[in-house]
Every structure is written in structure tokens, then in C-alpha cells.
Design a protein that fits this description.
By secondary structure, the chain is α+β, with helices and mostly antiparallel strands. It has three helices and six strands, in the order ααββαββββ. Strands 1-2-4-5-6-3 form a six-stranded antiparallel β-sheet.
């Protein structure tokens, strides 16, 4: 992937209404490798005053999309996403990364994880994404 495409990709994700709403931004981006971050926000807390699991899952889903699209110029959609929560979160910043398990042509299995700003594991996920037809 060339730098022009990666710059466009970063802007495309960061300009999306959902990313702006969640406070997600790119922390690092290169061909096939990315890290995104999200500050923990009071409006994302559940009734127990911990970060809602849906916010964490959204971060995992987002990093997978970024990672796949940084490795090839395609659009993708989630087939499934299994999330395993490891540690609760009340504050700070979360960081997400993903690894493509197998670069398939139509279905791409991926693993991803979220850590906090102390590098404490928050959640892991396994997923499969489908490549959308142009």
C-alpha cells in the first residue's frame, strides 16, 4: 500500500460519524499494521460505572476493519466477532491492534486485542470478515 492510500484510509475512518462519536483515532498506520486508540468517556459507562462492553467490542471491530483495509484496497464487513472480556475499565485510554490469521480472498479470519494505557489486557476477539464485491 502506498502512503497516499494510507493517508486517505486514515482520513476516511477518522472522519466517520461513528469514530467521531466514540472518540476513536488512529495511533499508528502502515501497510497491514495499525493501532487505534479511544479515550474512556463518561458517556460510555454502564450502570456499574465501568466502560460498556459494546464500546470495547466496537473498538475491536474497528481495528480489524482498519488492519484488513490497510493490507489490501477492499471494503469488508463483519461476519462474526467473538469477544472475551478480561479486565474492567473505568478510565484512561484504550489501544487496539489486530493480526490477520489468513489473508483469504473472500473470508479473512482475524484476531484482535485491546489494552489500556498501562498495557493491561482488557479484551480479545476472534473474527471473520468478508470482502465485499466492488
Amino acid at each position: 500500500m502506498d502512503n497516499e492510500y494510507l493517508t486517505w484510509l486514515q482520513n476516511d475512518f477518522e472522519d466517520s460519524p461513528f469514530w467521531r462519536h466514540m472518540g476513536i483515532s488512529m495511533d499508528y498506520l502502515s501497510a497491514g499494521e495499525a493501532r487505534i486508540k479511544m479515550p474512556v468517556s463518561e458517556n460510555q459507562m454502564n450502570c456499574n460505572q465501568f466502560l460498556h462492553g459494546g464500546s470495547i467490542t466496537s473498538l475491536l471491530d474497528s481495528i480489524i476493519g482498519v488492519t484488513i483495509r490497510s493490507s489490501q484496497n477492499v471494503k469488508v464487513a463483519t461476519i462474526y466477532l467473538n469477544t472475551h472480556f478480561v479486565s474492567p475499565v473505568k478510565d484512561g485510554t484504550l489501544y487496539a491492534t489486530a493480526n490477520i490469521v489468513h489473508p483469504g480472498k473472500s473470508i479473512i479470519p482475524v484476531e484482535s486485542k485491546v489494552v489500556d494505557d498501562q498495557d493491561r489486557l482488557i479484551a480479545v476477539a476472534t473474527a471473520a470478515f468478508t470482502v465485499l464485491k466492488k
